[in-house]
Amino acid sequence: MTLLIIVLAVLALIVLSSWGKVNAFLAFLLVTIPAGLALGLPPAQVLAAVQKGLGDTLGSVALVVVLGAMLGKLVAESGAAQRIAAVLMQAFGSKNIQWTMMVTGFIIGIPLFYNVGFLLVIPLIFSVVYQYRLPAVYVGLPMLASLSVLHGFLPPHPAPTALVALFHANVGLTFGYGLLVAVPAVVVAGPLYARTLRGIVSAPLAGFVSEALAESALPGRVNSFLSSLLSVLVLAVVLGLQAVLPPGGPLAPALAFLADPGVVMMLSVGVATFSLGRSQGKSMTSVMETYGEALRDVALLLLIIGGAGALKEVLVESGAGQAIAAGLNGTGLPPLLLGWLLAGLIRVCLGSATVAGLTAAGVMLPTMAHSTVNPNLMVLAIGAGSLLFSHLNDSGFWLFKQYFNLSIRDTLRSWSAMETIVSVVGLLGVLVLDWALPLVAPALARL
Protein backbone atom coordinates (compact mmCIF):
# COMPACT_ATOMS: atom_id res chain seq x y z
CA MET A 1 0.00 0.00 0.00
CA THR A 2 2.86 2.38 0.85
CA LEU A 3 4.44 1.89 -2.57
CA LEU A 4 1.08 2.45 -4.31
CA ILE A 5 0.56 5.76 -2.51
CA ILE A 6 4.03 6.94 -3.49
CA VAL A 7 3.48 5.96 -7.13
CA LEU A 8 0.15 7.81 -7.20
CA ALA A 9 1.79 10.88 -5.65
CA VAL A 10 4.50 10.94 -8.32
CA LEU A 11 1.92 10.47 -11.09
CA ALA A 12 -0.13 13.33 -9.63
CA LEU A 13 2.98 15.54 -9.68
CA ILE A 14 3.57 14.74 -13.34
CA VAL A 15 -0.07 15.42 -14.29
CA LEU A 16 -0.27 18.70 -12.36
CA SER A 17 3.08 20.03 -13.58
CA SER A 18 3.00 18.97 -17.24
CA TRP A 19 -0.64 18.53 -18.27
CA GLY A 20 -2.26 20.87 -15.76
CA LYS A 21 0.47 23.56 -16.10
CA VAL A 22 0.34 24.10 -12.33
CA ASN A 23 3.33 25.93 -10.81
CA ALA A 24 5.73 23.20 -9.62
CA PHE A 25 5.90 24.55 -6.05
CA LEU A 26 2.10 24.55 -5.74
CA ALA A 27 1.98 21.08 -7.29
CA PHE A 28 4.31 19.79 -4.58
CA LEU A 29 2.09 21.21 -1.84
CA LEU A 30 -1.08 19.86 -3.47
CA VAL A 31 0.44 16.38 -3.63
CA THR A 32 2.44 16.30 -0.40
CA ILE A 33 -0.37 16.94 2.09
CA PRO A 34 -2.81 14.30 0.72
CA ALA A 35 0.07 11.80 0.41
CA GLY A 36 1.02 12.33 4.07
CA LEU A 37 -2.58 11.83 5.20
CA ALA A 38 -2.93 8.70 3.05
CA LEU A 39 0.25 7.28 4.60
CA GLY A 40 -1.33 7.57 8.05
CA LEU A 41 0.23 10.73 9.43
CA PRO A 42 -2.03 12.94 11.58
CA PRO A 43 -2.84 16.32 9.97
CA ALA A 44 -0.72 18.24 12.47
CA GLN A 45 2.27 15.96 11.82
CA VAL A 46 1.85 16.35 8.06
CA LEU A 47 1.99 20.14 8.35
CA ALA A 48 4.97 19.92 10.70
CA ALA A 49 6.77 17.62 8.25
CA VAL A 50 6.05 20.02 5.36
CA GLN A 51 7.49 22.94 7.33
CA LYS A 52 10.50 20.92 8.46
CA GLY A 53 11.17 19.63 4.94
CA LEU A 54 10.95 23.13 3.49
CA GLY A 55 13.16 24.59 6.20
CA ASP A 56 15.78 21.84 6.26
CA THR A 57 16.10 21.66 2.48
CA LEU A 58 16.30 25.40 1.94
CA GLY A 59 18.55 25.77 4.96
CA SER A 60 21.02 23.34 3.43
CA VAL A 61 20.98 24.64 -0.14
CA ALA A 62 19.70 28.24 -0.16
CA LEU A 63 23.01 29.88 0.76
CA VAL A 64 24.94 27.82 -1.78
CA VAL A 65 22.35 28.27 -4.55
CA VAL A 66 22.05 32.03 -4.03
CA LEU A 67 25.80 32.63 -3.81
CA GLY A 68 26.42 30.26 -6.70
CA ALA A 69 23.89 32.15 -8.80
CA MET A 70 25.60 35.45 -7.96
CA LEU A 71 29.02 34.09 -8.87
CA GLY A 72 27.68 32.48 -12.03
CA LYS A 73 25.96 35.66 -13.17
CA LEU A 74 29.13 37.72 -12.65
CA VAL A 75 31.31 35.09 -14.34
CA ALA A 76 28.99 35.26 -17.35
CA GLU A 77 28.57 39.03 -17.56
CA SER A 78 32.23 39.85 -16.95
CA GLY A 79 33.29 37.70 -19.89
CA ALA A 80 35.21 35.20 -17.72
CA ALA A 81 33.05 32.30 -18.95
CA GLN A 82 33.60 33.46 -22.53
CA ARG A 83 37.37 33.54 -21.96
CA ILE A 84 37.40 30.06 -20.38
CA ALA A 85 35.26 28.64 -23.19
CA ALA A 86 37.60 30.11 -25.80
CA VAL A 87 40.66 28.64 -24.09
CA LEU A 88 39.05 25.19 -23.89
CA MET A 89 37.94 25.25 -27.50
CA GLN A 90 41.39 26.38 -28.67
CA ALA A 91 43.06 23.64 -26.67
CA PHE A 92 40.78 20.71 -27.52
CA GLY A 93 38.57 21.74 -30.43
CA SER A 94 34.79 21.57 -30.81
CA LYS A 95 34.90 17.88 -31.77
CA ASN A 96 36.27 16.96 -28.34
CA ILE A 97 34.22 19.42 -26.28
CA GLN A 98 32.17 16.66 -24.63
CA TRP A 99 35.31 14.93 -23.36
CA THR A 100 36.76 18.25 -22.25
CA MET A 101 33.61 19.01 -20.27
CA MET A 102 33.59 15.52 -18.77
CA VAL A 103 37.19 15.76 -17.55
CA THR A 104 36.62 19.28 -16.22
CA GLY A 105 33.57 18.08 -14.30
CA PHE A 106 35.57 15.16 -12.93
CA ILE A 107 38.30 17.45 -11.61
CA ILE A 108 35.82 19.94 -10.16
CA GLY A 109 33.63 17.20 -8.70
CA ILE A 110 36.27 15.60 -6.48
CA PRO A 111 36.39 18.41 -3.88
CA LEU A 112 33.04 20.14 -4.58
CA PHE A 113 29.58 19.11 -3.41
CA TYR A 114 27.16 18.60 -6.30
CA ASN A 115 25.07 21.77 -5.85
CA VAL A 116 28.17 23.94 -5.63
CA GLY A 117 29.75 22.30 -8.65
CA PHE A 118 26.55 22.55 -10.68
CA LEU A 119 26.19 26.27 -10.10
CA LEU A 120 29.89 26.82 -10.75
CA VAL A 121 29.93 25.13 -14.17
CA ILE A 122 26.58 26.43 -15.49
CA PRO A 123 28.03 29.72 -16.88
CA LEU A 124 30.85 27.79 -18.52
CA ILE A 125 28.44 25.34 -20.18
CA PHE A 126 26.13 28.08 -21.43
CA SER A 127 29.02 30.17 -22.71
CA VAL A 128 30.25 27.26 -24.85
CA VAL A 129 26.69 26.57 -26.02
CA TYR A 130 25.97 30.10 -27.20
CA GLN A 131 29.38 30.98 -28.60
CA TYR A 132 29.75 27.83 -30.67
CA ARG A 133 26.04 27.11 -31.30
CA LEU A 134 26.11 23.63 -29.81
CA PRO A 135 23.12 21.84 -28.20
CA ALA A 136 23.02 22.61 -24.47
CA VAL A 137 22.20 19.09 -23.26
CA TYR A 138 24.84 17.61 -25.57
CA VAL A 139 27.49 19.89 -24.07
CA GLY A 140 26.36 19.97 -20.45
CA LEU A 141 25.35 16.39 -19.66
CA PRO A 142 28.89 14.89 -19.67
CA MET A 143 30.10 17.46 -17.15
CA LEU A 144 27.06 17.01 -14.91
CA ALA A 145 27.37 13.22 -15.13
CA SER A 146 30.87 13.56 -13.70
CA LEU A 147 29.64 15.74 -10.83
CA SER A 148 26.78 13.36 -10.03
CA VAL A 149 28.89 10.20 -10.05
CA LEU A 150 31.55 11.66 -7.78
CA HIS A 151 28.86 12.97 -5.40
CA GLY A 152 27.31 9.51 -5.12
CA PHE A 153 30.39 7.28 -5.20
CA LEU A 154 33.42 8.91 -3.66
CA PRO A 155 34.53 10.36 -0.32
CA PRO A 156 34.75 13.18 0.80
CA HIS A 157 31.14 13.64 -0.31
CA PRO A 158 28.61 13.28 2.54
CA ALA A 159 26.82 9.99 1.77
CA PRO A 160 29.90 7.94 0.72
CA THR A 161 31.84 9.26 3.71
CA ALA A 162 29.02 8.26 6.07
CA LEU A 163 28.78 4.80 4.44
CA VAL A 164 32.54 4.26 4.81
CA ALA A 165 32.19 4.92 8.55
CA LEU A 166 29.09 2.72 8.94
CA PHE A 167 30.64 -0.28 7.19
CA HIS A 168 34.14 0.28 8.64
CA ALA A 169 35.51 0.46 5.10
CA ASN A 170 38.85 1.91 4.08
CA VAL A 171 38.60 5.46 2.71
CA GLY A 172 41.61 5.05 0.40
CA LEU A 173 40.46 1.72 -1.05
CA THR A 174 36.90 2.98 -1.46
CA PHE A 175 38.20 6.02 -3.31
CA GLY A 176 40.46 3.90 -5.54
CA TYR A 177 37.78 1.32 -6.34
CA GLY A 178 35.32 4.17 -6.80
CA LEU A 179 37.49 5.76 -9.49
CA LEU A 180 37.62 2.43 -11.35
CA VAL A 181 33.82 2.26 -11.26
CA ALA A 182 33.19 5.96 -11.84
CA VAL A 183 35.16 6.38 -15.07
CA PRO A 184 33.18 3.91 -17.24
CA ALA A 185 29.91 5.09 -15.67
CA VAL A 186 30.65 8.71 -16.60
CA VAL A 187 31.84 7.83 -20.11
CA VAL A 188 28.71 5.82 -20.93
CA ALA A 189 26.21 8.18 -19.27
CA GLY A 190 27.99 11.37 -20.35
CA PRO A 191 29.61 11.70 -23.80
CA LEU A 192 28.19 8.48 -25.28
CA TYR A 193 24.58 8.85 -24.16
CA ALA A 194 24.51 12.63 -24.73
CA ARG A 195 25.19 12.03 -28.43
CA THR A 196 21.69 10.56 -28.72
CA LEU A 197 20.19 13.78 -27.32
CA ARG A 198 21.45 16.34 -29.84
CA GLY A 199 17.87 16.84 -31.03
CA ILE A 200 16.64 18.16 -27.67
CA VAL A 201 15.91 21.86 -28.02
CA SER A 202 17.01 23.80 -24.93
CA ALA A 203 17.01 27.54 -24.29
CA PRO A 204 19.10 27.77 -21.09
CA LEU A 205 18.11 30.10 -18.26
CA ALA A 206 18.51 33.62 -19.62
CA GLY A 207 20.19 34.95 -16.48
CA PHE A 208 23.36 33.02 -17.27
CA VAL A 209 23.57 34.00 -20.91
CA SER A 210 25.34 37.23 -21.81
CA GLU A 211 26.25 38.91 -25.06
CA ALA A 212 29.68 38.11 -26.44
CA LEU A 213 32.24 40.76 -25.52
CA ALA A 214 35.12 42.04 -27.60
CA GLU A 215 38.46 40.29 -26.99
CA SER A 216 39.93 43.45 -25.45
CA ALA A 217 37.11 43.66 -22.91
CA LEU A 218 37.58 40.13 -21.55
CA PRO A 219 39.41 39.45 -18.27
CA GLY A 220 42.74 37.66 -18.56
CA ARG A 221 43.07 33.89 -18.65
CA VAL A 222 44.55 33.53 -15.19
CA ASN A 223 41.99 35.90 -13.66
CA SER A 224 39.10 34.10 -15.39
CA PHE A 225 40.14 30.63 -14.29
CA LEU A 226 41.17 31.58 -10.74
CA SER A 227 38.07 33.70 -10.06
CA SER A 228 35.71 31.08 -11.44
CA LEU A 229 37.39 28.05 -9.84
CA LEU A 230 38.56 29.59 -6.56
CA SER A 231 36.12 27.44 -4.56
CA VAL A 232 37.60 24.29 -6.12
CA LEU A 233 41.13 25.38 -5.26
CA VAL A 234 40.26 26.36 -1.69
CA LEU A 235 38.47 23.08 -1.01
CA ALA A 236 41.28 21.06 -2.57
CA VAL A 237 43.85 22.76 -0.31
CA VAL A 238 41.63 22.44 2.78
CA LEU A 239 40.88 18.76 2.18
CA GLY A 240 44.55 18.08 1.55
CA LEU A 241 45.52 19.75 4.83
CA GLN A 242 42.80 17.86 6.69
CA ALA A 243 44.17 14.60 5.31
CA VAL A 244 47.76 15.20 6.48
CA LEU A 245 47.25 17.14 9.72
CA PRO A 246 46.11 15.57 13.01
CA PRO A 247 42.29 15.71 13.40
CA GLY A 248 42.41 17.52 16.74
CA GLY A 249 45.20 19.94 15.88
CA PRO A 250 45.06 23.71 16.37
CA LEU A 251 44.11 24.29 12.70
CA ALA A 252 41.23 21.78 12.72
CA PRO A 253 38.43 24.28 13.57
CA ALA A 254 39.60 26.77 10.95
CA LEU A 255 39.87 24.05 8.30
CA ALA A 256 36.40 22.72 9.13
CA PHE A 257 35.05 26.27 8.80
CA LEU A 258 36.73 26.74 5.40
CA ALA A 259 35.49 23.35 4.19
CA ASP A 260 31.85 24.44 4.54
CA PRO A 261 30.35 24.99 1.03
CA GLY A 262 28.60 28.19 2.11
CA VAL A 263 31.80 29.71 3.46
CA VAL A 264 33.72 28.73 0.33
CA MET A 265 31.08 30.29 -1.91
CA MET A 266 31.04 33.50 0.16
CA LEU A 267 34.81 33.73 -0.20
CA SER A 268 34.54 33.13 -3.95
CA VAL A 269 31.85 35.78 -4.40
CA GLY A 270 33.87 38.27 -2.34
CA VAL A 271 37.00 37.75 -4.44
CA ALA A 272 35.07 37.80 -7.74
CA THR A 273 33.38 41.08 -6.77
CA PHE A 274 36.78 42.74 -7.12
CA SER A 275 38.64 40.49 -9.60
CA LEU A 276 35.78 40.29 -12.13
CA GLY A 277 33.89 43.41 -11.07
CA ARG A 278 35.79 46.38 -9.74
CA SER A 279 39.09 45.51 -11.44
CA GLN A 280 37.25 45.26 -14.79
CA GLY A 281 35.94 48.80 -14.46
CA LYS A 282 32.50 47.97 -13.02
CA SER A 283 31.13 50.13 -10.24
CA MET A 284 30.04 48.51 -7.00
CA THR A 285 26.46 49.52 -7.83
CA SER A 286 26.70 47.69 -11.15
CA VAL A 287 28.06 44.55 -9.50
CA MET A 288 25.27 44.61 -6.91
CA GLU A 289 22.70 45.00 -9.69
CA THR A 290 24.14 41.88 -11.29
CA TYR A 291 23.75 40.01 -8.01
CA GLY A 292 20.17 41.27 -7.66
CA GLU A 293 19.31 39.91 -11.12
CA ALA A 294 20.81 36.57 -10.11
CA LEU A 295 18.51 36.42 -7.07
CA ARG A 296 15.46 36.96 -9.27
CA ASP A 297 16.64 34.19 -11.57
CA VAL A 298 16.72 31.56 -8.82
CA ALA A 299 13.83 32.61 -6.53
CA LEU A 300 11.30 30.21 -8.06
CA LEU A 301 13.89 27.47 -8.25
CA LEU A 302 14.48 27.71 -4.49
CA LEU A 303 10.77 27.31 -3.81
CA ILE A 304 10.60 24.24 -6.05
CA ILE A 305 13.59 22.68 -4.28
CA GLY A 306 11.87 23.42 -0.96
CA GLY A 307 8.71 21.71 -2.24
CA ALA A 308 10.70 18.59 -3.13
CA GLY A 309 12.18 18.66 0.38
CA ALA A 310 8.69 18.87 1.91
CA LEU A 311 7.55 15.74 0.03
CA LYS A 312 10.72 13.91 0.99
CA GLU A 313 10.24 14.76 4.67
CA VAL A 314 6.61 13.57 4.70
CA LEU A 315 7.69 10.24 3.19
CA VAL A 316 10.51 9.90 5.72
CA GLU A 317 8.21 10.77 8.66
CA SER A 318 5.68 8.17 7.51
CA GLY A 319 8.32 5.44 7.57
CA ALA A 320 8.00 4.79 3.83
CA GLY A 321 11.71 4.12 3.38
CA GLN A 322 11.84 1.56 6.18
CA ALA A 323 8.69 -0.15 4.90
CA ILE A 324 10.18 -0.54 1.42
CA ALA A 325 13.49 -1.77 2.81
CA ALA A 326 11.77 -4.33 5.05
CA GLY A 327 9.82 -5.67 2.09
CA LEU A 328 13.00 -6.33 0.11
CA ASN A 329 15.23 -7.57 2.91
CA GLY A 330 14.02 -11.18 2.77
CA THR A 331 14.50 -11.72 -0.96
CA GLY A 332 17.67 -13.81 -0.73
CA LEU A 333 19.48 -11.66 -3.30
CA PRO A 334 23.31 -11.37 -3.18
CA PRO A 335 24.27 -8.63 -0.66
CA LEU A 336 25.80 -6.22 -3.19
CA LEU A 337 22.79 -6.47 -5.51
CA LEU A 338 20.38 -6.16 -2.57
CA GLY A 339 22.17 -3.06 -1.24
CA TRP A 340 21.97 -1.45 -4.70
CA LEU A 341 18.30 -2.37 -5.11
CA LEU A 342 17.33 -1.10 -1.65
CA ALA A 343 19.06 2.23 -2.19
CA GLY A 344 17.63 2.53 -5.70
CA LEU A 345 14.02 1.90 -4.75
CA ILE A 346 14.19 4.24 -1.76
CA ARG A 347 15.82 6.89 -3.97
CA VAL A 348 13.03 6.59 -6.57
CA CYS A 349 10.35 6.84 -3.89
CA LEU A 350 11.84 9.50 -1.62
CA GLY A 351 14.00 11.53 -4.03
CA SER A 352 17.01 11.96 -1.76
CA ALA A 353 20.26 10.15 -2.59
CA THR A 354 21.59 10.72 0.93
CA VAL A 355 18.46 9.37 2.65
CA ALA A 356 18.39 6.40 0.25
CA GLY A 357 22.03 5.57 0.91
CA LEU A 358 21.84 5.85 4.69
CA THR A 359 18.53 3.94 4.93
CA ALA A 360 19.84 1.11 2.78
CA ALA A 361 23.04 1.02 4.84
CA GLY A 362 21.03 0.66 8.06
CA VAL A 363 19.19 -2.33 6.60
CA MET A 364 22.37 -3.95 5.26
CA LEU A 365 24.48 -3.56 8.41
CA PRO A 366 23.18 -6.75 10.11
CA THR A 367 23.69 -8.68 6.87
CA MET A 368 27.25 -7.44 6.57
CA ALA A 369 28.05 -8.73 10.06
CA HIS A 370 27.52 -12.29 8.79
CA SER A 371 28.92 -11.85 5.30
CA THR A 372 32.32 -11.88 3.63
CA VAL A 373 31.36 -9.09 1.21
CA ASN A 374 34.04 -6.43 0.72
CA PRO A 375 32.77 -3.39 2.70
CA ASN A 376 34.40 -0.98 0.24
CA LEU A 377 32.34 -2.48 -2.57
CA MET A 378 29.16 -2.33 -0.48
CA VAL A 379 29.72 1.42 -0.09
CA LEU A 380 29.96 1.74 -3.87
CA ALA A 381 26.97 -0.54 -4.56
CA ILE A 382 24.72 1.49 -2.27
CA GLY A 383 26.17 4.74 -3.65
CA ALA A 384 25.33 3.61 -7.20
CA GLY A 385 21.82 2.64 -6.16
CA SER A 386 21.24 6.00 -4.50
CA LEU A 387 21.60 7.71 -7.91
CA LEU A 388 18.95 5.59 -9.68
CA PHE A 389 16.31 7.46 -11.73
CA SER A 390 16.21 10.99 -10.36
CA HIS A 391 12.77 12.40 -11.15
CA LEU A 392 10.19 14.96 -9.98
CA ASN A 393 10.73 14.44 -6.25
CA ASP A 394 14.47 15.21 -6.44
CA SER A 395 15.86 18.74 -6.22
CA GLY A 396 18.62 17.82 -8.69
CA PHE A 397 15.96 17.10 -11.32
CA TRP A 398 14.54 20.60 -10.93
CA LEU A 399 17.96 22.26 -10.94
CA PHE A 400 18.66 20.68 -14.32
CA LYS A 401 15.17 21.32 -15.71
CA GLN A 402 14.97 24.97 -14.69
CA TYR A 403 18.50 26.00 -15.65
CA PHE A 404 18.35 24.24 -19.03
CA ASN A 405 14.74 25.37 -19.49
CA LEU A 406 13.48 21.93 -20.56
CA SER A 407 10.08 20.27 -20.54
CA ILE A 408 9.48 17.52 -18.00
CA ARG A 409 9.53 14.97 -20.82
CA ASP A 410 12.94 16.11 -22.09
CA THR A 411 14.30 16.29 -18.53
CA LEU A 412 13.26 12.67 -18.00
CA ARG A 413 14.87 11.72 -21.34
CA SER A 414 18.14 13.44 -20.48
CA TRP A 415 18.76 13.92 -16.77
CA SER A 416 16.72 11.00 -15.38
CA ALA A 417 18.01 8.57 -18.01
CA MET A 418 21.60 9.71 -17.42
CA GLU A 419 21.27 9.09 -13.67
CA THR A 420 19.82 5.64 -14.34
CA ILE A 421 22.69 4.74 -16.69
CA VAL A 422 25.19 5.92 -14.08
CA SER A 423 23.53 3.75 -11.46
CA VAL A 424 23.34 0.59 -13.58
CA VAL A 425 26.87 0.89 -14.99
CA GLY A 426 28.09 1.59 -11.46
CA LEU A 427 26.50 -1.64 -10.22
CA LEU A 428 28.04 -3.61 -13.09
CA GLY A 429 31.44 -2.13 -12.25
CA VAL A 430 31.06 -3.14 -8.60
CA LEU A 431 30.10 -6.71 -9.57
CA VAL A 432 33.10 -6.95 -11.91
CA LEU A 433 35.42 -5.78 -9.11
CA ASP A 434 33.82 -8.28 -6.72
CA TRP A 435 34.64 -11.05 -9.21
CA ALA A 436 38.12 -9.79 -10.11
CA LEU A 437 39.58 -8.79 -6.73
CA PRO A 438 39.89 -12.37 -5.35
CA LEU A 439 41.70 -13.36 -8.57
CA VAL A 440 44.29 -10.59 -8.39
CA ALA A 441 44.70 -10.53 -4.59
CA PRO A 442 47.35 -13.32 -4.49
CA ALA A 443 49.42 -11.57 -7.16
CA LEU A 444 49.18 -8.25 -5.34
CA ALA A 445 50.20 -9.91 -2.05
CA ARG A 446 53.42 -11.15 -3.65
CA LEU A 447 54.43 -7.65 -4.78
TrEMBL record:
Keyword Ribosomal protein: no
Record's bilayer topology term: Multi-pass membrane protein
Keywords: Cell membrane, Membrane, Transmembrane, Transmembrane helix, Transport
UniProt KW Transport keyword: yes
Highest taxon listed in the record's lineage: Bacteria
Compartments where found: Cell membrane
Transmembrane regions: 27-50, 57-76, 96-129, 136-154, 174-194, 225-245, 251-277, 298-316, 336-365, 377-400, 420-445
Family: Belongs to the GntP permease family.
Protein's recorded name: Gluconate:H+ symporter
